[in-house]
Design brief:
The structure is a homodimer of 400-residue chains.
Chain A: H1 4-13, E1 20-24, E2 37-38, E3 48-49, E4 53-56, E5 67-74, E6 89-92, E7 104-107, E8 111-114, E9 117-120, E10 131-132, E11 143-145, H2 153-161, E12 166-170, E13 175-180, E14 184-185, E15 196-197, H3 200-209, E16 216-220, H4 224-237, E17 240-244, H5 255-261, E18 265-269, E19 273-274, E20 280-283, E21 290-294, H6 298-316, E22 325-328, E23 332-333, E24 339-349, E25 352-357, E26 374-378, E27 384-385, E28 390-395
Parallel strand pairs in A: 5-6, 13-16, 13-17, 14-15, 17-21, 19-24, 22-25
Antiparallel strand pairs in A: 1-12, 2-11, 3-10, 4-6, 4-7, 5-9, 8-9, 18-20, 20-21, 22-28, 23-27, 24-25, 24-26, 26-28
């Protein structure tokens, strides 16, 4: 048995070199950049007018009420005009190039325009006002985004602006989600009284799909020879196996044995945690085949995916997981010498992230998860946890 | 001009009745349930063994060291066995039905098994121990999930367990994303010096796609008759239009006029906010056509989408938006009588959500967004904002 910290460290240490694939930028959010992105030009590429109004030569302004005849109109998308007479002005539109020989923009709100003339209604004009200077945001050739950056819609804005319609991101490894246990039936079947539907494969696949991670799904029956035969077939094709069930101490739990016989070396079995104690983790000698064998009960599977596997895949892509904490909203006692992943509902109040404990004693009690946003990680060294103390949070629902 | 509060209220008040569609549960995360979900059986459906070990009749246990001969093995997925002699025990596997005539499970860890007999190594046995009682999580017929619930992988677990392979969710309205401005070129073109690529459509479509919201994309050129003609065509097909650009006070900004001529009544134009002041919002008299006309600069578009449109669509689905706050990590001065959406990087530290201001003065300065996680909403009534004060946060990046 290893501690949660040891298990986490061992899992994170097994990272292969991920492949890359090209995806359309519109569907790239959540993925991780596999290439660095450079500015193909200055941003903005020109001195950009930031307000509708007039452009003038600031030095020519003396006093409020001064009038500048309008020479021309500078539309967005047109090459820059040239102000011929510096006592005149040019009307300018937001987004347009600042006309040559001008260096300040005065907003319509600060003007009175009549008969082709603009009267200034403010006391002071500063050089550069209402102008977004060329290259202020980025210089041509500058790195805009580094490989290893997780893409959000904000990054899509940048990618589009430099002309990328598609982008290289890290590819997820070929992955199999494998359930086991003869008590499980397909979800569209009506189970006998002693049977239940196999929900874990769907839960895992949904959690993975949210990240863009596709997988195949298999089921193993409780027969040692068949388990081994099927695992061999799966391992020939897939590089990552996420199993649920068949790793506790039960008479019919052949999976760890079968995996070892297939050359998957155990890196740990059993973690001093609740839920999820029977978690088994292993890899082939060359670390090209990685097996997460999770306990079969739904809450354990769910916790282990979010605590170990999600940070692991992100780590493979060079993204280190954020360490976030929340504060216990009520006292909790947990005596067993295990790290306790307490089911909590979170609330952001006055900038404070509060974690409200929500029942969920039994680790099979997954009906509870619908009222819960995450797990608060209560360390094994302690058994009394007080309201107001901050502990790591493993969240599976967006806080915002 | 309206305040941010008025604009928000007006936008949220225009909600139509959304349609529904059926989606596969694996791709349902992020969507909103359009049907309530009931337990088709008790959860668990039987008294479920929660640990591998033996099942006994608790009353028959007298003292540590007592030996119970093993009658049989109860596998998961098999109908319940019956303990014939109450001085015996049955070996049981996690997930199996509790055998009849037994009422407690003792874990392997607390046993010594030899020659078909189990010796008890603990002092005390309690009725019901290591058993997950029938219907503890939910009773048959009970509502498990209400319509209007946003689906995460946790809800997928429940949906799968009651046999739902697909589920009804609210459908997004037919939506067009429409850019405008003659300074814009396609993103795969090389812009002239005075031109820029049209990134806004991609940013919006990426932000929408993350929620499962698909849209068509159009571009309008700066010509009043063409603008009107194209908007008419789009309005014939799409019910929601998200425009960017063409709503400020510029000479070439025909869009509000064209929209009003097409029967889209202005509900507000201009919001006392920075960025995003020129925001225009309108709807047809019967509220079946809704138009968000956002300012064209990328940061304004981005802010308005997250502040107004995302809560609006969720509100249409019956999901009220979470009101979250973060604490300013540094003093900020902002004098204009506008609500200021300050670009911030967030950090969760000891359960406190801190918002670090990150440059980004100009509202066109979107290269800055890559280092930013959201906008802190600083009210217009104040101009000095102190470190430690909590303000609403509009986040566009997952905090966890």
């Amino acid at each position: 048995m290893v501690t949660v910290q040891e298990a986490f460290r061992i899992v994170q240490s097994v990272t292969g070199k991920p492949g890359v694939e090209e995806v359309d930028i519109v569907t790239s959010t959540g993925r991780v950049l596999a290439e660095s992105i450079y500015a193909d030009r200055d941003f903005p590429p020109f001195n950009r007018v930031a307000m509708d109004g007039i452009a003038v030569q600031a030095d020519k302004f003396k006093t409020r009420g001064q009038v500048f005849p309008i020479e021309d109109i500078q539309a967005a998308g047109s090459p820059p005009l040239i102000l011929k007479d510096q006592n005149n002005c040019i009307e300018v539109m937001t987004g347009s190039v600042l006309p040559k020989n001008t260096n300040a923009v005065i907003r319509y709100e600060d003007l009175e325009i009549k008969d082709g003339k603009a009267k200034i209604l403010v006391e002071k004009i500063e050089r550069g006002m209402n102008i977004h200077p060329q290259s202020q945001d980025a210089k041509q050739g500058e790195v805009l985004l580094m490989a290893g950056k997780k893409i959000s819609a904000a990054e899509v804005a940048l990618l589009a602006s430099i002309g990328k319609k598609s982008v290289y991101v890290f590819a997820f490894p070929r992955t199999a989600v494998v359930s086991s246990g003869d008590e499980l039936v397909e979800i569209d079947e009506v189970p006998e009284l002693h049977q239940i539907r196999k929900s874990n494969s769907y839960t895992l696949q949904a959690a993975m799909k949210e990240m863009g991670w596709k997988s195949e799904s298999f089921h193993l029956t409780d027969d040692k020879e068949l388990v081994k035969k099927n695992l061999r077939t799966i391992l020939e094709i897939d590089d990552v196996l996420i199993l649920s069930g068949g790793v506790s101490k039960g008479k019919f739990d052949f999976i760890p044995e079968a995996l070892e016989e297939l050359g998957i070396k155990k890196l740990f079995h059993q973690v001093s945690q609740r839920p999820g104690k029977p978690f088994w983790f292993g890899a082939s000698a060359d670390k090209t085949k990685i097996v997460f064998a999770l306990p079969g009960n739904p809450v354990s599977t769910f916790l282990c995916f979010h605590k170990y596997i999600k940070p692991w895949i992100m780590n493979c892509f060079g993204v280190s997981s954020k360490h976030i904490t929340a504060r216990l909203a009520a006292d909790v006692i947990f005596a067993p010498p295990l790290t306790y992943f307490l089911q909590v509902r979170t609330e952001l109040k006055d900038g404070m992230l509060l974690a409200h404990p929500k029942g969920g004693g039994g680790s099979g009690d997954f009906a509870n998860l619908k009222d819960v946003d995450g797990f608060l990680e209560l360390p094994l060294e302690k058994s009394a946890f007080n309201a107001g103390e901050a502990y790591p949070l493993i969240s599976f629902r967006s806080i915002v």
